Protein backbone atom coordinates (compact mmCIF):
# COMPACT_ATOMS: atom_id res chain seq x y z
CA UNK A 1 0.00 0.00 0.00
CA UNK A 2 1.16 3.55 -0.75
CA UNK A 3 0.36 6.59 1.38
CA UNK A 4 -2.85 8.37 0.41
CA UNK A 5 -2.58 10.78 -2.49
CA UNK A 6 -2.54 14.56 -2.19
CA UNK A 7 -6.12 14.94 -3.41
CA UNK A 8 -7.56 12.83 -0.59
CA UNK A 9 -5.45 14.64 1.97
CA UNK A 10 -6.52 18.04 0.67
CA UNK A 11 -10.23 17.17 0.71
CA UNK A 12 -10.32 15.78 4.25
CA UNK A 13 -6.82 15.60 5.73
CA UNK A 14 -7.69 14.36 9.20
CA UNK A 15 -9.94 11.51 8.13
CA UNK A 16 -7.64 10.65 5.23
CA UNK A 17 -4.69 10.22 7.58
CA UNK A 18 -6.76 8.15 9.99
CA UNK A 19 -7.78 5.89 7.14
CA UNK A 20 -4.15 5.65 6.07
CA UNK A 21 -3.02 4.70 9.58
CA UNK A 22 -5.76 2.09 9.86
CA UNK A 23 -4.81 0.55 6.52
CA UNK A 24 -1.11 0.59 7.40
CA UNK A 25 -1.79 -1.17 10.70
CA UNK A 26 -3.77 -3.86 8.90
CA UNK A 27 -1.12 -4.45 6.25
CA UNK A 28 2.16 -3.85 8.07
CA UNK A 29 1.43 -3.73 11.80
CA UNK A 30 2.37 -7.37 12.39
CA UNK A 31 5.60 -7.38 10.40
CA UNK A 32 8.87 -8.19 12.15
CA UNK A 33 10.40 -4.91 13.25
CA UNK A 34 13.31 -4.87 10.74
CA UNK A 35 10.89 -5.52 7.86
CA UNK A 36 8.55 -2.84 9.16
CA UNK A 37 11.36 -0.30 9.29
CA UNK A 38 12.46 -1.22 5.78
CA UNK A 39 8.95 -0.65 4.43
CA UNK A 40 8.56 2.65 6.26
CA UNK A 41 11.95 4.02 5.27
CA UNK A 42 12.25 2.78 1.70
CA UNK A 43 8.75 2.12 0.36
CA UNK A 44 6.11 4.06 2.25
CA UNK A 45 7.89 7.35 3.02
CA UNK A 46 11.27 7.35 1.25
CA UNK A 47 13.10 10.56 2.15
CA UNK A 48 10.07 11.80 4.06
CA UNK A 49 10.39 10.08 7.44
CA UNK A 50 12.69 10.67 10.41
CA UNK A 51 13.33 8.75 13.59
CA UNK A 52 13.07 10.84 16.75
CA UNK A 53 15.29 9.65 19.58
CA UNK A 54 16.06 10.91 23.07
CA UNK A 55 19.15 8.67 23.27
CA UNK A 56 17.67 7.61 26.59
CA UNK A 57 17.43 4.44 28.63
CA UNK A 58 15.88 2.23 25.93
CA UNK A 59 17.01 4.06 22.80
CA UNK A 60 19.83 1.74 21.79
CA UNK A 61 17.51 -1.02 20.56
CA UNK A 62 15.61 1.05 17.99
CA UNK A 63 18.73 2.91 16.90
CA UNK A 64 20.53 -0.39 16.36
CA UNK A 65 17.59 -1.75 14.38
CA UNK A 66 17.62 1.42 12.28
CA UNK A 67 21.34 1.08 11.63
CA UNK A 68 20.79 -2.42 10.26
CA UNK A 69 18.20 -1.14 7.79
CA UNK A 70 19.55 2.32 6.88
CA UNK A 71 22.27 3.94 8.98
CA UNK A 72 21.99 7.11 6.89
CA UNK A 73 18.33 7.75 7.77
CA UNK A 74 17.52 11.05 9.51
CA UNK A 75 17.56 10.87 13.31
CA UNK A 76 16.28 13.92 15.20
CA UNK A 77 17.68 14.51 18.69
CA UNK A 78 16.30 17.41 20.71
CA UNK A 79 18.94 18.85 23.02
CA UNK A 80 16.88 20.86 25.51
CA UNK A 81 20.09 22.23 27.03
CA UNK A 82 18.90 20.71 30.32
CA UNK A 83 19.97 17.15 29.62
CA UNK A 84 22.33 15.00 31.67
CA UNK A 85 25.91 15.09 30.47
CA UNK A 86 25.73 11.30 30.42
CA UNK A 87 23.00 11.47 27.78
CA UNK A 88 25.06 13.70 25.51
CA UNK A 89 28.05 11.39 25.81
CA UNK A 90 25.84 8.33 25.28
CA UNK A 91 24.56 9.90 22.06
CA UNK A 92 28.12 10.10 20.75
CA UNK A 93 28.78 6.51 21.83
CA UNK A 94 25.79 5.15 19.92
CA UNK A 95 26.46 7.28 16.84
CA UNK A 96 29.98 5.88 16.62
CA UNK A 97 29.01 2.32 17.52
CA UNK A 98 26.17 2.08 15.00
CA UNK A 99 27.72 4.23 12.26
CA UNK A 100 24.77 6.61 12.20
CA UNK A 101 25.36 9.46 9.75
CA UNK A 102 21.99 11.23 9.80
CA UNK A 103 21.75 12.41 13.41
CA UNK A 104 20.62 16.03 13.65
CA UNK A 105 20.81 17.85 16.98
CA UNK A 106 17.86 20.21 17.44
CA UNK A 107 18.14 23.14 19.86
CA UNK A 108 15.52 25.47 21.36
CA UNK A 109 15.03 28.83 19.66
CA UNK A 110 17.18 31.43 21.48
CA UNK A 111 14.37 33.98 21.18
CA UNK A 112 11.94 31.59 22.89
CA UNK A 113 14.41 31.07 25.72
CA UNK A 114 15.09 34.79 26.06
CA UNK A 115 11.38 35.52 26.27
CA UNK A 116 10.10 32.69 28.45
CA UNK A 117 13.14 31.42 30.34
CA UNK A 118 15.87 34.06 30.49
CA UNK A 119 17.28 32.72 33.76
CA UNK A 120 16.99 29.05 32.82
CA UNK A 121 14.82 28.34 35.85
CA UNK A 122 11.39 28.01 34.24
CA UNK A 123 11.31 24.30 35.13
CA UNK A 124 10.95 25.27 38.80
CA UNK A 125 7.55 26.90 38.32
CA UNK A 126 6.09 25.82 34.97
CA UNK A 127 7.26 22.49 33.62
CA UNK A 128 4.67 22.45 30.83
CA UNK A 129 5.92 25.68 29.29
CA UNK A 130 9.52 24.64 29.85
CA UNK A 131 8.96 21.39 27.94
CA UNK A 132 7.05 23.31 25.30
CA UNK A 133 9.78 25.77 24.40
CA UNK A 134 12.70 23.40 24.90
CA UNK A 135 11.32 20.23 23.32
CA UNK A 136 7.90 20.50 21.66
CA UNK A 137 8.51 23.60 19.54
CA UNK A 138 12.02 22.62 18.38
CA UNK A 139 10.82 19.17 17.34
CA UNK A 140 7.76 20.51 15.54
CA UNK A 141 9.98 22.85 13.53
CA UNK A 142 12.45 20.07 12.77
CA UNK A 143 9.65 17.83 11.50
CA UNK A 144 8.62 20.29 8.80
CA UNK A 145 9.14 18.56 5.48
CA UNK A 146 8.57 15.07 6.88
CA UNK A 147 5.31 13.19 6.33
CA UNK A 148 5.97 10.64 9.06
CA UNK A 149 8.16 10.06 12.09
CA UNK A 150 9.32 7.03 14.03
CA UNK A 151 9.32 6.80 17.82
CA UNK A 152 10.51 4.27 20.38
CA UNK A 153 7.36 4.23 22.50
CA UNK A 154 6.15 0.93 23.95
CA UNK A 155 2.80 -0.10 25.40
CA UNK A 156 4.29 -1.26 28.68
CA UNK A 157 5.78 2.15 29.50
CA UNK A 158 2.65 3.72 30.97
CA UNK A 159 -1.13 3.50 31.14
CA UNK A 160 -1.40 6.30 28.57
CA UNK A 161 0.48 4.10 26.07
CA UNK A 162 -1.27 0.79 26.80
CA UNK A 163 -3.36 0.87 23.60
CA UNK A 164 -0.57 2.18 21.36
CA UNK A 165 -0.83 1.25 17.68
CA UNK A 166 2.12 0.68 15.38
CA UNK A 167 0.78 3.38 13.05
CA UNK A 168 -1.15 6.37 14.35
CA UNK A 169 -1.92 9.96 13.41
CA UNK A 170 -0.29 12.86 15.22
CA UNK A 171 -0.59 16.49 14.17
CA UNK A 172 -1.08 15.94 10.43
CA UNK A 173 1.60 13.26 10.21
CA UNK A 174 1.78 9.51 10.46
CA UNK A 175 3.61 8.41 13.59
CA UNK A 176 5.21 4.97 13.56
CA UNK A 177 5.85 3.01 16.76
CA UNK A 178 7.83 -0.08 15.66
CA UNK A 179 8.40 -1.27 19.24
CA UNK A 180 4.82 -0.78 20.40
CA UNK A 181 4.30 -4.42 21.31
CA UNK A 182 7.81 -5.16 22.58
CA UNK A 183 8.07 -6.23 26.21
CA UNK A 184 10.75 -5.38 28.76
CA UNK A 185 12.06 -8.92 28.38
CA UNK A 186 12.23 -8.65 24.59
CA UNK A 187 14.16 -5.39 24.81
CA UNK A 188 16.63 -6.84 27.30
CA UNK A 189 17.13 -9.97 25.24
CA UNK A 190 17.79 -7.95 22.08
CA UNK A 191 20.25 -5.68 23.87
CA UNK A 192 22.11 -8.66 25.31
CA UNK A 193 22.18 -10.55 22.02
CA UNK A 194 23.68 -7.57 20.20
CA UNK A 195 25.83 -6.42 23.12
CA UNK A 196 24.33 -2.94 23.07
CA UNK A 197 25.88 -0.41 25.46
CA UNK A 198 23.43 0.70 28.18
CA UNK A 199 22.80 4.30 29.11
CA UNK A 200 25.17 4.87 32.07
CA UNK A 201 22.39 6.28 34.26
CA UNK A 202 20.29 3.11 34.14
CA UNK A 203 22.63 1.38 36.58
CA UNK A 204 22.25 4.36 38.90
CA UNK A 205 18.48 3.92 39.23
CA UNK A 206 17.18 5.89 36.24
CA UNK A 207 15.03 3.57 34.05
CA UNK A 208 13.49 6.57 32.28
CA UNK A 209 15.67 9.57 31.50
CA UNK A 210 14.70 13.07 30.49
CA UNK A 211 16.04 16.47 31.49
CA UNK A 212 18.27 16.54 34.55
CA UNK A 213 16.16 18.88 36.75
CA UNK A 214 12.97 16.87 36.20
CA UNK A 215 14.28 13.30 36.36
CA UNK A 216 14.62 11.44 39.65
CA UNK A 217 15.79 7.97 40.60
CA UNK A 218 13.12 5.27 40.75
CA UNK A 219 12.80 2.93 43.71
CA UNK A 220 12.44 -0.85 43.20
CA UNK A 221 8.84 -1.70 42.38
CA UNK A 222 7.94 1.80 41.21
CA UNK A 223 6.63 2.55 37.73
CA UNK A 224 9.65 3.07 35.44
CA UNK A 225 8.45 6.61 34.67
CA UNK A 226 7.77 7.51 38.32
CA UNK A 227 10.93 9.59 38.39
CA UNK A 228 9.77 11.89 35.61
CA UNK A 229 8.34 15.15 37.03
CA UNK A 230 8.04 13.45 40.41
CA UNK A 231 5.26 14.84 42.57
CA UNK A 232 3.42 16.36 39.62
CA UNK A 233 0.47 15.10 37.59
CA UNK A 234 2.54 15.53 34.44
CA UNK A 235 3.43 12.25 32.71
CA UNK A 236 4.48 13.36 29.19
CA UNK A 237 6.77 16.11 27.95
CA UNK A 238 4.27 17.05 25.26
CA UNK A 239 5.80 15.81 22.02
CA UNK A 240 3.41 12.85 22.01
CA UNK A 241 0.31 14.89 22.83
CA UNK A 242 -2.05 16.52 20.28
CA UNK A 243 -1.04 20.05 19.33
CA UNK A 244 -3.85 21.09 17.01
CA UNK A 245 -5.18 24.56 17.62
CA UNK A 246 -1.98 25.93 19.08
CA UNK A 247 0.58 28.05 17.30
CA UNK A 248 3.97 26.86 16.09
CA UNK A 249 5.61 30.26 16.39
CA UNK A 250 6.45 30.03 20.07
CA UNK A 251 3.11 30.83 21.66
CA UNK A 252 2.12 27.19 21.65
CA UNK A 253 1.39 24.28 19.35
Automatic annotation (TrEMBL):
Cofactor binding, per record: Binds 1 [4Fe-4S] cluster per subunit.
EC number: 1.8.4.10
Protein's UniProt keywords contain Secreted: no
GO biological process, one term: hydrogen sulfide biosynthetic process
Localisation: Cytoplasm
Tagged with keyword Glycoprotein: no
Residue positions binding [4Fe-4S] cluster: 130-131, 211, 214
Needed cofactors: [4Fe-4S] cluster
Catalytic activity: [thioredoxin]-disulfide + sulfite + AMP + 2 H(+) = adenosine 5'-phosphosulfate + [thioredoxin]-dithiol
Catalytic residues in the record: 237
Pathway the protein contributes to: Sulfur metabolism; hydrogen sulfide biosynthesis; sulfite from sulfate
UniProt keyword annotations, A-Z: Cytoplasm, Iron, Iron-sulfur, Metal-binding, Oxidoreductase
InterPro entries associated with the record: PAPS/APS_Rdtase (IPR004511), PAPS_reduct_dom (IPR002500), Rossmann-like_a/b/a_fold (IPR014729)
Signal peptide positions (record): none
Xref: Pfam families: PAPS_reduct
Transmembrane regions listed in the UniProt entry: none
PANTHER family per the UniProt record, alphabetical: PHOSPHOADENOSINE PHOSPHOSULFATE REDUCTASE
NCBIfam families found in the cross-reference section: cysH, PRK02090.1
Protein name, as recorded: Adenosine 5'-phosphosulfate reductase
Lineage: Bacteria, Pseudomonadati, Pseudomonadota, Alphaproteobacteria, Hyphomicrobiales
Gene this chain is encoded by: cysH
